[in-house]
Amino acid sequence: MKMKLSLAAVAIAAFFGAGAAQADTIPGMRGHDHTGVTVPNMVEAVDFFTNVIGCKKATSFGPFADDKGTFMTDLLGVDSKAVIKEITLMRCGFGSNVELFEYTAPDQKDLKQKNSDIGAFHIAFYVDDIAAVKAYLDKKGVATRMGPLPIAEGPVAGQSILYFQAPWGLQFEAISYPDGMAYEKTAETKLWSVRKPAE
Predict the structure, then answer these.
(1) At 150, which helix (H) or strand (E)?
(2) pTM score, whole prediction
(3) Is the distance from CB of 80 to CB of 69 less than 8 angstroms?
(4) Are residues 126 and 167 part of one domain?
C-alpha cells in the first residue's frame, strides 16, 4: 500500500511539475505596464499622487461616453450610461505606472474596501528608508497603520512594510528590503526590484 501511495505521489508531482514548466503566457508579455484605479475626484487624487507620493503627471484625456449605444459595456464591462470624465496617467519612480479614472455611472458604488475583501488591492512603493517615510507621512497628516514592521523570519525576511491610505480610502504600502529578502538566496524566479537590474 505504501509503495502504491509513493508511486501515486511521484506521478502527481511529475504531472504538476510538467504543467508548471509548460505554463501558458499572454503572447509577447513584457511586464506590468500600469494599475488602473477609479477615484472619486481627479483633482484630489492627482494632488495626493503628486504632492504626497511624489509621482509625476504624464497626461490626461477624456471624457468618454456613449449616450445611445453599448460601447461602454462592450469595451469596459460597465453600465452603458457610464461616463469617464477624465483619465490621468501618473509616472511613479522606476516601477510601473498608475492610471487614474474619474467615472460617473447609474450603478456606481463606493466600495470602501478592506484588504481582506475579495478583489481588494493596494499599491506598493519601494522606498529606501521606511522610517523616514513614516515620519514624512505623519508630518503630512496621512493615515498610517502599525509599523514600520520589520520581517525577521520566513521567505520575505529582510523586508520592512508600512501600510497607509489616501483620504478617500485607497490603500498603499511602503516597502523596503535594502539587503534583499531571504528567498532570493535560492530562488530561480526573483521579484522585480529597483535595487538591481531586472533579470
Answers:
(1) strand 149-150
(2) 0.83
(3) yes
(4) yes
pLDDT tens for the chain, 199 residues long, are 443 444 444 443 444 444 445 678 899 998 999 999 999 999 999 999 999 999 999 999 999 999 999 999 999 999 999 999 999 999 999 889 999 999 999 999 998 889 899 999 999 999 999 999 999 999 999 999 999 999 999 999 999 999 999 999 999 999 999 999 999 999 999 998 887 544 4
Decide which of 56, 77, 106 is a domain's last residue: 106
Cβ contact 179:128 at 8 Å: no
Give how many domains the chain has, as a whole number.
2
The separation between the first and the last C-alpha atoms of the chain, rounded to the nearest angstrom, is 45
In a domain, 19, yes or no: no
Could you give the CA distance from residue 125 to residue 96 in angstroms, rounded to a whole number?
A: 10
Residue 48: Cβ within 10 Å count: 21
DSSP string covering 71-120: HHHHHHSS-TT-EEEEEEEEE-TTS-EEEEEEEE-TT-------TTSTT-
147 is in which domain, residue-wise? 122-191
